[in-house]
Design goal:
- The protein is mainly alpha-helical.
- It contains three helices and no strands.
- It has a domain of about 55 residues.
């Protein structure tokens, strides 16, 4: 089946899952790489406490918090770049 036929069937609401090979599907930018991070004991204890409170693994908390901070900082960098570019045009 050609791509335009698949698109047409999808747009019409047809279930096209039988035509897809999910075994090769990947999430963009979601490849995993293991890293080691050393934390002071007080942070480990706080993470353990928060982990138990939320009922999720410590690793999940760390991933979410780091992702939130990176997104927050990316927004700040983008605004700073915009201001810088606007200032250079003046």
């Amino acid at each position: 089946m050609k791509a335009n036929e698949l698109d047409k069937r999808f747009d019409e609401g047809e279930d096209i899952s039988e035509y897809l090979d999910f075994s090769k599907a990947k999430h963009p930018k979601q490849e995993q790489k293991r890293v080691n991070v050393n934390f002071p004991l007080w942070m480990i204890h706080s993470l353990d406490k928060e982990s138990k409170r939320l009922g999720v693994p410590c690793q999940s908390i760390v991933k979410v918090w780091v992702a939130e901070r990176l997104k927050q900082n990316q927004g700040q960098i983008s605004r700073a770049e915009l201001r810088s570019k606007a200032g250079s045009k003046a």
